[in-house]
């Protein structure tokens, strides 16, 4: 129609019908490739013919936590595509496979570097020190001791805040086992990407069932650190970190309820999660804490002196902040490409199904955290600083700080989120991911250093 002049009154535009909306859609080759995934949303928005006999599939816990709602598609399946090849067309259309191999090669280079450094320390420097210390027989020679052997009377002195450290180690063990089993099942094909939320459901169920290892490790390590309040230790292990996660989810949902967002978790689902936590996880944690408290403490090869040894003045490179920041860079360098792809999968609606790469990178991450923590722990001991407990934990867990910085960069550089509710949702789930990363990486680094120190002091003759 001809445009009207400014003097003539205009009627308010009518709301376009579905036909008008269809004519305004621009279809790209990328949309055609992803048509099986977007047709479901179109079917709920437009007047397609629905199959009255087909029922909607049930939703799992992971889909509910992510705020997803599913409905049956009005289209028929393509019977010519084999079930084992259903993801091949996505793999062929994505360039992530080459990037994955480059990431794996980069991670292997980092592992070879750290392994070479650890091998030099253990096979040459440390072996030479042990031989020299054991050959000293006279008292005059004993006065010439230096380095890490001088700390045999203080290296196992309990640190400050031993209660909190043991709680972190128990929760880190629980998260580590949960993550390993979940990724292993996904790598073996038991958690199909077509079942949205299956990965989250498996992780939550495993976390609930793994309360016993958390209580056992926490109680036994607390007993090793000369702690006596094992009931308080049990309560903190069962309630501290899970309580932080639950409070984070509840706060997010309060905001989403106020905003009227469809991503909000229903109140009944929150009550169900709370019931699983208090009714299953807490009793299992108590069982583990009971047996851990009854078990003997971890055996250490040397006794602890009554008077603490004076720590000499440390240089800038042997002070805790420098070593902790350096120790977190290499593990983060192994996982940042996988982190980018995972964030794209969660927030940019891209498919992620290469769990074999993810599981391999997870193993590489564990090895890198262990070697970096052991390497820096040896440098601390050579500088005659025996406060290694918390440093061993923070050296590898500082990777979570770099993860947090990267997620903030991803939010401002890659996403276009302006709503308050969406921003709260992003940073709420990010803080849960950072906390999980902090716990299991710190646990891996700590127990690697703990085993390393027990080994080196068990082969040295101490009067």
UniProtKB/TrEMBL annotation:
Q: Which GO terms describe its biological process?
A: protein localization to membrane
Q: Name one Pfam family in it.
A: EMP70
Q: What is its main location?
A: membrane
Q: Does the keyword Transmembrane apply?
A: yes
Keyword Acyltransferase present in the record's keywords: the answer is no
Which family does the entry's similarity section mention?
Belongs to the nonaspanin (TM9SF) (TC 9.A.2) family.
Name the domain of life: Eukaryota
Name any GO cellular component annotation. Answer: membrane
**Membrane topology, record value:** Multi-pass membrane protein
By what name is this protein known? Transmembrane 9 superfamily member
Regions crossing the membrane: 101-123, 167-191, 197-222, 234-258, 264-291, 322-347, 353-381, 388-412, 424-454
UniProt entry keywords in alphabetical sequence:
Membrane, Signal, Transmembrane, Transmembrane helix
Q: What is the lineage of its organism?
A: Eukaryota, Metazoa, Chordata, Craniata, Vertebrata
InterPro entries hit by this protein: EMP70 (IPR004240), MFS_trans_sf (IPR036259)
Location in or out of the cell:
Membrane
């Amino acid at each position: 129609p001809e445009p009207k002049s400014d003097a003539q009154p205009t009627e308010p535009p009518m709301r376009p019908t579905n036909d008008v909306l269809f004519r305004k859609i621009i279809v790209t080759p990328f949309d055609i490739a992803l048509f099986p995934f977007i047709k479901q949303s179109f079917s709920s928005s437009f007047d397609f013919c629905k199959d009255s006999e087909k029922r909607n599939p049930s939703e799992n816990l992971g889909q509910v936590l992510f705020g997803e709602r599913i409905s049956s598609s009005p289209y028929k399946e393509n019977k010519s595509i084999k079930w084992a090849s259903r993801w091949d067309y996505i793999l062929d259309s994505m360039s992530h496979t080459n990037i994955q191999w480059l990431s794996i090669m980069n991670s292997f280079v980092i592992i070879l570097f750290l392994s070479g450094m650890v091998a030099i320390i253990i096979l040459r420097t440390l072996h030479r020190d042990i031989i020299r210390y054991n050959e000293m027989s006279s008292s005059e020679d004993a006065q010439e001791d230096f380095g890490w052997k001088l700390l045999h009377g203080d290296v196992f002195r309990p640190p400050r805040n031993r209660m909190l450290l043991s709680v972190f180690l128990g929760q880190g063990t629980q998260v580590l086992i949960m993550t390993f089993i979940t990724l292993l099942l996904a790598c073996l094909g038991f958690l199909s990407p077509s079942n949205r939320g299956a990965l989250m459901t498996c992780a939550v169920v495993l976390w609930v069932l793994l309360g016993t290892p958390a209580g056992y490790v926490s109680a036994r390590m607390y007993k090793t650190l000369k702690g006596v309040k094992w009931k308080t230790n049990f309560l903190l292990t069962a309630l501290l970190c899970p309580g932080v996660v639950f409070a984070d989810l509840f706060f997010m949902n309060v905001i989403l309820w106020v905003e009227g967002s469809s991503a909000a978790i229903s109140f009944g689902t929150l009550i169900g999660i709370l019931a699983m936590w208090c009714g299953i996880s807490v009793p299992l944690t108590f069982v583990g804490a009971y047996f851990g408290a009854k078990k003997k403490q971890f055996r250490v090869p040397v006794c602890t002196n009554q008077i603490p040894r004076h720590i000499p003045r440390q240089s800038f490179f042997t002070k805790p902040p420098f070593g902790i920041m350096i120790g977190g860079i290499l593990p983060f360098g192994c996982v940042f490409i996988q982190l980018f792809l995972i964030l794209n999968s969660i927030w940019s609606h891209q498919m992620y199904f290469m769990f074999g790469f993810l599981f391999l990178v997870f193993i590489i991450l564990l090895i890198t955290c262990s070697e970096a923590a052991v390497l820096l722990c040896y440098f601390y001991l050579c500088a005659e600083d025996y406060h290694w407990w918390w440093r061993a934990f923070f050296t590898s867990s500082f990777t979570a700080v770099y993860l947090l910085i990267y997620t903030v960069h991803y939010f401002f550089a890659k996403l276009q989120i302006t709503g308050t509710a969406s921003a709260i949702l992003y940073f709420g789930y990010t803080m849960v991911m950072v906390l999980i990363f902090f716990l299991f990486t710190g646990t891996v680094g700590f127990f690697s250093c703990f085993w390393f120190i027990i080994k080196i002091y068990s082969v040295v003759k101490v009067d």
